[in-house]
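Shape matters. Shown next:

___
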Amino acid sequence: MKAIILAAGQGSRLGHMTDDRPKCLIEFNGRSLLDRQLDTLDTNGVSEAVVVTGFHDELVNAAIDRRRSAGQGPIVRTVFNPFYKVADNLGSLFLVRDELNGDCLVWNGDTLVSRSLMAKVVSNSGRDGICVTIDRKDSYDEDDMKVVRDIDSGRLRAIGKRLAKGVNAESIGLLAFRGEGGARFADAIEREMRTPEGTTVWYLRVIHYLAQHSEVWTLDISGDEWGEVDFPEDVERAEALVKRWDEAREAKAA
C-alpha cells in the first residue's frame, strides 16, 4: 500500500507557530507531525509515501532526508505544489493523480491518528473502491467535515462542512482506495480541475459528487483516537494525545 500525504499548506490559522515552518513540522512530544505520520505508516506496513509539499518545501525535504539517512521508513518521495497559495487541496491531488493506483491512502497532513486506528484502515481490505474513514460524536460544529451515511450498509450519501440534515458522522481526513477506486477518483479530479471553480475546491467535494451516483463507503473507527491540528487550541490537545500514546508504548515495551 502507498500513502499520499497532503502537506503543502502553511497552516496560517495556527498564527506565529507557522511563520517559518509548515504545519507538518510542528513538534509534538519531541517529534514532528510528519514524522509521526510516517512512523504510523511504517509500523503498519505501508512501505511507500508521497508527500505533497509547498510552503517551505526545503524544510520538509530536509526532514525527510534526515529520516532517510537514519534508515527510517517508509520510502518517501516529495512532489512540490507551486500553486499551494492559490489552489485548495484538490490542486495538490491533481499534481499526483497518477499516483492514485492500486491500494492507496490519501491523508491530510494535519491529522494525527493512533497506530491501532491506522491498522484498521490498512486491514479493511474487504471493501473495494473508495472508503472514507469516519468518527461519530454527539454534535458537530461548523468546522467539522460532516458526513451522512447509511447506518446499516456504511455507504456514504453526503460529505461537506455545510451539511445540516441527517449528519451522523465526520470525516477524519484519511481515505483508502482499492481496486478501481483510485482511478475513479483521479478521473473525477481531472474533470473538476477543468471547471472554472476547480482551484477553489476541496477534494472531499469531489468525493461527495462521486457518492451521488456511485458507491463510496465509510469505515467507522469510533473508539480509536485521532486529532486534527487546525487552531492553536488543537496543539495542546494533540500534545497531550501523542504523549499518552508514547507513554503507553514505552510501558508496553518495558
Q: What stands out?
A: The first helix runs from residue 33 to 43.
